[in-house]
């Protein structure tokens, strides 16, 4: 691995940092105020203005490796840029690089027909619409995706879809126009991994009903949010299927690789900002006769945070490098490792930052409470830690067969 970024990436880092300094950080509080004023489920004027500015400056669709529709960056090249975006909760959307749209766009790029790409991928890449991915279900343990019970059954030239999904991120957003839905087309297939299929469901299809937004430790993440969604006798043309019947599990696995690493890239940036906030805080506060920064326990925590962040970053960069050079399937152990290690690191670093801020860290004034909720949620997003640890252990044991 090369530890130095290319001139192209360094230039983009500088440009991205400049944009963040001038347009994102100064507007974080305003963005929150706009969401809390009026209908919080409507997109803010500020966000739309910043997206237009980012597009004009060429800081747009920086993900999507190895595709002419993207910015021409590999996963390894995108990693330090995604880290910069991860420093602010609002930043990824500004650059059209936010979940779940990035994963959905990569899914359409990899598995969609030309017609599907024209209809849905093009407006997503343009930032004109948003999307969601409906996979997790409240009635079953969705950590095992073969458990899903929603059905996608043929009826002439259509599929009829029935099921209840939840944690469908983006579904409450009025800009969400397309759902990537995973269900079973062949529940009786003896191969549990060939029962599922994935279809495209326009959000305005009759029978699609957003039941309620869901909160994460009290945060509803408006105006994007997460929702429980009911599908009752939803009819879509058979041409809306992705790749073909029985290929749903394969598509889900292909989608989750990039999604997992993007979450981890962003988490590195969030951890860096938490550490910065902690250092600034302890240098400005005095307790028991001396600055908090001179307390031994504080120095130990700062050192431990720096060590953990550096370790996590190197593992993320290794996973990105392997995804680029040998593919997601070969890199599955490294992808699983970062999905366990990085959220755990983030949880610890943010927790130490909260402790350094005292009761202020529990408030909404410093962003640490939201960061802590994000860190804890990441241990479940795209598969719980237990699933990844089991996979890592199994792959390790295979070396000794």
Characteristic key phrases:
401 residues, alpha+beta, four-stranded antiparallel beta sheet, three-stranded mixed beta sheet, 12 helices, 9 strands
Description:
The chain is of the alpha+beta class and 401 residues long. It is built from twelve helices and nine strands. The chain has helices spanning 7-24, 28-36, 45-56, 75-85, 91-94, 101-111, 114-125, 248-284, 296-325, 332-357, 368-378, 385-398, and strands at 130-134, 151-155, 158-169, 176-184, 196-202, 208-214, 226-237, 286-287, 290-291. The strands form three sheets. It has a four-stranded antiparallel sheet with strand order 2-3-7-6, with no helix packed on it. A hairpin with a 2-residue loop joins strand 8 and strand 9. The longest helix is centred in the middle third of the chain and has 37 residues, at 248-284. The relative contact order is 0.10. The model has no long low-confidence stretch (mean pLDDT 95).
Helix content: 40-55%
For the residues shown, what is the average pLDDT? 95
Number of E-type strands: 9
The end-to-end span amounts to 29 Å
Largest sheet: 4 strands, antiparallel
Oligomer: single chain
Class by helix and strand content? alpha+beta
Question: DSSP strand (E) fraction?
Answer: 15-25%
Strand order of the largest sheet: 2-3-7-6
Taking all Cα atoms into account, the compactness measure Rg is 21 Å
Strand-and-helix sequence, N→C? HHHHHHHEEEEEEEHEEHHHH
Q: Enumerate how many helices there are, as a single number.
A: 12
Give the overall form. globular
Residue stretches low in confidence (pLDDT < 50, at least 5 long) are none
């Amino acid at each position: 691995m090369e530890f130095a970024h290319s001139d192209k990436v360094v230039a983009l880092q500088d440009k991205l940092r400049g944009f963040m300094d001038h347009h994102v950080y100064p507007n974080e509080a305003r963005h929150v105020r706009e969401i809390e004023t009026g209908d919080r489920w409507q997109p803010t004027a500020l966000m739309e203005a910043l997206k237009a500015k980012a597009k004009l400056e060429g800081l747009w669709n920086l993900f999507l490796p190895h595709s002419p529709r993207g910015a021409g960056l590999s996963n390894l090249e995108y990693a330090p840029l995604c880290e910069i975006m991860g420093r602010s909760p609002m930043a990824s959307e500004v650059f059209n690089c936010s979940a779940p749209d990035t994963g959905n766009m990569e899914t359409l790029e990899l598995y969609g027909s030309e017609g599907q790409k024209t209809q849905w991928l093009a407006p997503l890449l343009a930032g004109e619409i948003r999307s969601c991915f409906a996979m997790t279900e409240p009635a079953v343990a969705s950590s095992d995706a073969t458990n899903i019970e929603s059905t996608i059954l043929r009826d002439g030239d259509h599929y009829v879809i029935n099921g209840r999904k939840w944690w469908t991120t983006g579904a409450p957003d009025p800009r969400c126009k397309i759902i990537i839905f995973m269900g079973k087309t062949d529940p009786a297939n003896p191969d549990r991994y060939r029962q599922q299929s994935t279809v495209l469901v326009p959000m305005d299809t009759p029978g699609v009903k957003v039941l309620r937004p869901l909160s994460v430790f009290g945060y509803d993440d408006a105006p994007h949010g997460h929702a429980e969604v009911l599908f009752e006798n939803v009819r879509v043309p058979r041409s809306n299927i992705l790749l073909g019947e029985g290929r749903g599990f394969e598509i889900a696995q292909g989608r989750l690789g990039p999604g997992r690493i993007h979450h981890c890239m962003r988490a590195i940036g969030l951890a860096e900002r938490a550490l910065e906030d902690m250092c600034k805080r302890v240098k400005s506060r005095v307790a028991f006769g001396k600055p908090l920064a001179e307390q031994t326990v504080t120095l130990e925590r700062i050192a431990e945070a720096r060590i953990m962040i550096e370790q996590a970053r190197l593992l993320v960069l290794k996973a990105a490098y392997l995804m680029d050079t040998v593919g997601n399937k070969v890199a599955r152990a490294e992808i699983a490792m970062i999905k366990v290690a990085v959220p755990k690191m983030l949880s610890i670093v943010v927790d130490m930052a909260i402790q350094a801020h005292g009761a202020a860290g529990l408030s909404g004034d410093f962003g640490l409470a939201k960061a802590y909720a994000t860190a804890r949620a990441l241990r479940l997003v795209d598969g719980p830690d237990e699933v990844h640890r089991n996979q890592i252990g199994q792959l390790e044991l295979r070396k000794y067969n």
